[in-house]
Amino acid sequence: MKLREIFIAHDALLVVSPENNQSISSLLKNTIDWLSRDIGDGKGVNSGLAPFRGKVAAMMAASPGAYGAVRHLPQLRQCLGGLGVTVLGNQVALIHAGEAFDESGALRDAHNAKAVQRLAASLVEMTKKLNPTGDTGVRPQPGKTGV
């Protein structure tokens, strides 16, 4: 339940994922599926939509190949959108991910680093615009929820 609490407490999601067989990784898909299940009475914070309601998401993907995992991003966009998440139109797909980082973990290519920075800035900006009060309207009520 800790992950559910973390999702509910935050206004935005930055989803960074590899691609498995041209699809969403099973770990990511199962995480989304389990978080979206109703718990308890299924109302308010117990709703399967509660972890996603009012959220804004940005997507990034990485792949050792030449496609940068772009084939699963439309599936992820559809999945998140179906749960009521506003998904930014721009995204980052990192090709040849195994060689993309230096010894310190920083991106080697300045263009890729700038793309990641721009996407993160867009996520923050859009989240502030869509949720200026920082209140998604869904908060755990101690003692009254399954969270």
The spatial strand order of the largest sheet comes to 2-1-3-4
Beta content comes to: 15-25%
Number of strands: 4
**Into which percent range does the helicity of residues fall?**
25-40%
CATH architecture: 3-Layer(aba) Sandwich
Radius of gyration, rounded? Answer: 17 Å
Number of helices: 4
Description:
With 147 residues, the chain is an alpha/beta fold. The chain has one domain: Flavodoxin domain (Rossmann fold). The protein has helices at residues 2-9, 26-35, 73-82, 110-130, and strands spanning 12-20, 23-24, 56-62, 86-94. Strands 2-1-3-4 form a 4-stranded mixed β-sheet, sandwiched between helices. The longest helix is centred in the C-terminal third of the chain and has 21 residues, at 110-130. Mean pLDDT is 89; it is low at 138-147.
Keywords:
four-stranded mixed beta sheet; 18% strand; Rossmann fold; disordered C terminus; 4 helices; 147 residues; alpha/beta; globular; single chain
Helix and strand topology:
Elements: H1 2-9, E1 12-20, E2 23-24, H2 26-35, E3 56-62, H3 73-82, E4 86-94, H4 110-130
Parallel strand pairs: 1-3, 3-4
Antiparallel strand pairs: 1-2
Characterize this entry briefly:
With 147 residues, this protein is of the alpha/beta class. Helices cover 33% and strands 18% of the residues.
